[in-house]
Design brief:
- The complex is a heterodimer.
- By secondary structure, chain A is an all-alpha fold.
- In chain A, about 75% of the residues lie in helices and about 0% in strands.
- Chain A is elongated.
- Classes of the chains: A mainly alpha, B mainly alpha.
Chain lengths: ~200, ~300
């Protein structure tokens, strides 16, 4: 195995951000092989995220193409303020919303829209912890787009608060607020579901 | 002995907003240590952690990545797009001409029912009255003045009501479709303009047949002003309001009528050359200004305020 092969093998499975930054720097200099390697690293998570946003495979694949073309064209403008992964997710999200001509929906309740959530624990936490998986899955399905997206980015793609803020183009406080709002909504859906079950 | 402060924060301070990041190991080392230390002494935050753990696991199950791989040729398509010349991109964007025309036709047909019906009725009624007037009026150049005054007026009034939340109740529904707002506006403007233009042509043709005269000269009498006032009315209705568009057109129209009825030499109402006279001519300048006004309207429309205050 040559040194290039080793490096490329590391590039596909290596440490996330350092390798991504190195690849993107090569892309910025017109290195096609670097874009191919970056594609290998991001194609599945980005396609998964786009499928979540569009619910349509053909659209998601076209948006993945758009995203890669934009990465190729704008690699030089990457300033390193966010991770490469968050930057690419952000491009994908922007393209998806542009294509769907959807204004970003704001479903967060007014009282929690801008305010940082409180650090105080809530007594109903046990309801969520004790809930059956099937009940939680039903409650998750009832969340709005914004709430589902923030949970997806946090727990499926495991982005940090800063990365999520960069992807959604909002302050970190808003990310926390959206997570809190999603949690509140889940608890509410669980309570409503339980009341409905009791009535039956 | 455990310090009462970790990472600059009191150990007893609750950490609920950091728990999702703690679960994901995306906190920095100092914060991670602080959260861990706090959890060891705070039952309420532990309960919160269990709640977040349940949410995290359910989310992973619910949104687990499907076993879908991108198409094998996706990357080659990306290279194809990257290597395209600007001309290739333009051609691809426009697509085959016949397909664009078919889509444009279907879009225009769908918009016919969304344009306020009053526009069609008003234009037809006013121009029919004009035609009747022209048949019975035998004074000098009056028939062509009627043409020059009323075709632009009815077109401009129609243009003021084709788009916007004030008079189009289905606009929000229209905008929720993937069709560009610019395409919607263009198709509506084209429909109203074409309708009024066709009425104007019919009227002119009828006038030539009944009273004689030069067909192309008579068209030149109203075509330029029609395009110019339509563009102005459309732009004002989008940027300010339909009523502002109508008011502005009304002022220009009255000034023209006053100018035609009573000549005031040396004023804007005089019959010589002046801005008011220039508006009512078909000249390269009026056509250019009209095109600029339409272009501004088309560029502006996606930024138009959608909902009533």
């Amino acid at each position: 195995m040559t040194q290039v092969d080793v490096w490329e093998a590391q590039a596909v499975a290596g440490e996330p951000d350092e390798m991504d930054v190195a690849l993107l720097a090569r892309v910025a200099h017109g290195d096609r092989r670097a874009l191919e390697l970056l594609y290998e690293r991001v194609r599945l998570p980005v396609l998964h995220y786009l499928l979540h946003l569009t619910s349509d495979r053909r659209n998601a694949e076209e948006l993945l193409q758009d995203t890669l073309v934009a990465v190729w064209k704008n690699a030089r403008s990457f300033a390193g303020k966010s991770s490469v992964r968050a930057w690419i997710f952000g491009i994908a999200r922007q393209r998806a919303y542009k294509r769907l001509r959807r204004r970003e929906p704001v479903y967060v309740a007014l009282e929690t829209a801008d305010a940082e959530p409180s650090e105080e624990p809530e007594p109903e936490a046990a309801l969520l912890a004790m809930a059956e998986r099937a009940e939680l899955a039903r409650a998750l399905a009832q969340l709005n787009t914004v709430q589902r997206e923030v949970l997806l980015l946090a727990f499926v793609h495991q982005l940090s608060y800063k990365e999520m803020a960069d992807v959604m183009d909002v302050p970190v406080g808003t990310v926390k607020s959206r997570l809190n709002s999603a949690r509140h909504a889940l608890r509410q859906h669980l309570s409503t579901g339980k009341e409905a079950d009791d009535d039956e | 002995m455990t310090s009462s402060r970790i990472d600059g924060q009191p150990l007893r301070a609750h950490v609920t907003t950091l728990l999702p990041a703690y679960l994901n190991h995306t906190l920095d080392a100092g914060e991670h240590e602080r959260v861990g230390a706090h959890l060891s002494i705070c039952g309420a935050c532990q309960a919160e952690l269990w709640a977040w753990l349940a949410i995290a696991e359910s989310t992973r199950e619910a949104f687990a990545a499907p076993a879908i791989q991108p198409s094998p040729d996706l990357l080659s398509q990306v290279w194809g797009r990257i290597d395209q010349t600007p001309l290739d991109r333009l051609a691809q964007r426009l697509g085959p001409l016949h397909r664009r025309l078919a889509v444009g036709g279907r879009l225009a047909l769908a918009q016919v029912w969304l344009i306020p019906a009053g526009i069609w009725v008003l234009s037809a009624a006013v121009l029919l009255l004009c035609f009747t007037g022209m048949l019975f009026w035998h004074i000098g150049t009056y028939p062509r003045s009627i043409l020059g005054a009323f075709v632009p007026l009815t077109t401009a009034i129609g243009m003021a009501f084709i788009y916007g939340p004030e008079y189009d109740e289905s606009l929000e529904v229209t905008l929720s479709t993937p069709v560009s707002p610019r395409a919607v506006l263009l198709s509506r403007a084209a429909l109203v303009f074409a309708y009024n233009f066709a009425l104007g042509l019919t009227l002119t043709l009828a006038l030539v047949m009944v009273r004689g005269g030069d067909f192309s000269m008579l068209i030149a009498y109203w075509a330029g002003p029609t395009l110019l006032l339509a563009g102005l009315s459309l732009l004002l209705s989008l940027t300010i309001s339909s009523l502002t568009g109508i008011a502005c057109i009304g002022v220009l129209w009255l000034a023209r009528v006053v100018g035609a009825a009573f000549d005031f030499p040396g004023t804007v109402f005089g019959s010589g050359s002046g801005p008011l006279t220039e508006i009512w001519k078909t000249s390269p300048i009026t056509l250019l200004v009209a095109l600029i006004l339409f272009a501004c309207a088309v560029l502006y429309v996606p930024f138009q305020r959608r909902l009533k205050a």
